[in-house]
Prior knowledge:
The chain has 14 helices and 22 strands.
Amino acid sequence: MNIHLIAIGGSAMHNLALELHKKGYQVTGSDDEIFEPSKSRLEAAGLLPEKWGWYPERITSRLDAVILGMHAREDNPELQKAQELGIPIYSYPEYLYEQTKNKLRVIVGGSHGKTTTTSMIMHVLKTCGIEFDYMAGALLEGFDTMVHLSDRSKIAVFEGDEYLSSPIDRRPKFHHYHPDIAILTGIAWDHMNVFPTFENYVEQFALFTQQITPNGKLIYYENDENLRQIASRVPASVQAIPYTSFPHYTEEGTTYLAGSLPTPIQVFGEHNLQNISAAYLACKELGIDETAFLKAIATYKGAAKRLQKIAEQNDTVVFLDFAHSPSKLQATIKAVREQYPRHKLIACMELHTFSSLNAAFLPQYRHTMDLADEAIVFFNPEVVKHKRLPEISSEDVRKGFDDTQLKVFTDNRQLLEELTQKNYENSVLLIMTSGNFSGIDIKELATQLIHK
């Protein structure tokens, strides 16, 4: 198979390129710029384009397929050439489905918790020695790539993202997967640039459930009102299975799962106990019994940037989390507050996405950081301009969070100064972002702060 990837440098796209290369496909690609770690990984595999840019002459009738990344534009010259030649063009999720359409597909969707839940299922399957295909939204410990496709496996586990599929396919990615087992973890408005109303956003999840295969399963978080309504409308052939948090208790700072065998776990927080419950039900459908599940999940350490402990010394701990949307932010702070009730909690987050930097969306953050002893928010006005959004001020952010004591920074040098001068004795520093605070090496900063 000869495959060409347009916008090969994206985090998902370059992982797919690496995996297809490992399968023995002839893989080429192009992009207008490629950053680390994609650049080094593609180079090591011999897949890095010789020069940046789009070159229609690379698109020939010898290609079996073109995969189009979200970073490309609708008028991309390579895309236009592929269309002229009639070469099959796939979005990233379409191609994943094409590779797994004869397998049992487990798809994890939701506004929050989908990467973690997906990684929990993957960890359990791997621990139990079951071969499977997968796609996750982050590089996970124990896995070389974010994507794996095998001719031998009979199961595929995919994280189901609700964002758009490609520049010429405005459907959410997870609408392509046709799950046999679907999981929905919860709904909280996100991607305001694509789904301008909450009702429109919720409808995407309802449409997802209509794609479940006959006799399939929908595993959904029961305490989410929108999910309850969606579950009540699934096709008659689909079984809706509700869940809440996995039964548990906490002793001396360790959380135990109260199943057939009391099991200490290495993650914490109510949201993770919900994720474990969803993962357990999915694994049960895949033939894994409770004892095997509990034994496996006990060794699960969490996904990267999901309450990831990046520094610790004496009574000081620093966590890094991907949280940026209101629901993720609130759940993450709550989890840390409950796990470290006698520590000072300093929460620092970055407004980085289109929704979070939109003045009309800011009120969704109301009181989401109230459980922190100190709350800090950073945003870069240049990013606001780049996204072509109306200007927002520090006062707009304070009003959105409904917190007059909130410290807001728009210059990362001033943010660094603020963080550096603090006393972190008996403290937890929780850093939350989907970016990097406009160029800060977060892990290096964490190490410096606790060793100063």
